[in-house]
Amino acid sequence: MDVELDRLIALHADKAYAVALRLTGSPADAGDVVQEAFLRAMKYFATYDPGLPFEAWLSQILRNVYLSSLRKEAARRSVPLSARDGEDAGSLEDALADAAPGPERRAEQGEDADRVQCALARLSPPLRLAVAMVDLEGSPREDAAAALGCSLSALDVRLHRGRGRLKELLS
């Protein structure tokens, strides 16, 4: 059984990290979330039903670990609107306020990914999880709904609201 778990973890490790990175916005935090999710997967592998997709089961564990980390460190998840010590003052305000930066500026600063990550961080966890899993990581809606513990229609509502909020934040 350990060989099978090792194979499944190796198969899904990159995608799990990518989802965690989208959720946390920090490589270090993403690594912590994935590590804890894999530890829990190892601990509870005996409860896994091989008839169900491993990715959905692992995504549910990843979601639970992420939500637990949010509850433990609520202050960390907020996006500051002013620069932190040592950062260029006003940089985040400028990125959020400038709704239509020119192509030269985007190319020079590479801020599109940063803007999306900042906007994603401002979504509530349920909306962020839905958008990250379906739109950013390409998970099938059925798998995402199963991992999030909601119906397809509830997932569709979260996706609609999350996409609308992202559109507001990015425009």
Care to give the gist of this entry?
It contains nine helices and no strands. By secondary structure, the chain is mainly alpha-helical.
Main attributes?
171 residues, mainly alpha, Butyryl-CoA Dehydrogenase, subunit A, domain 3
CATH architecture, by name, is Up-down Bundle
- Low-pLDDT regions: 75-79
Helix content: over 70%
- SSE sequence, one letter per element: HHHHHHHHH
Report Rg: 18 Å
**Biggest sheet features:** none
What's the name of the CATH homologous superfamily? Answer: PhyR, sigma-like (SL) domain
Give the oligomeric state: single chain
Task: Give me the CATH fold name.
Answer: Butyryl-CoA Dehydrogenase, subunit A, domain 3
- Number of E-state strands: 0
The CATH C-level class name? Mainly Alpha
Mean pLDDT score:
80
Describe the structure in your own words.
Mean pLDDT is 80; it is low at 75-79. The chain has one domain (2-74, 114-170): Butyryl-CoA Dehydrogenase, subunit A, domain 3 (Up-down Bundle), CATH 1.20.140.160. It has 9 helices and no strands. The chain has helices at residues 2-24, 27-43, 54-72, 91-97, 103-109, 111-121, 125-136, 141-148, 152-170. The radius of gyration is 18 Å and the shape is globular. The protein is mainly α and 171 residues long. Helix content is 72%, strand content 0%.
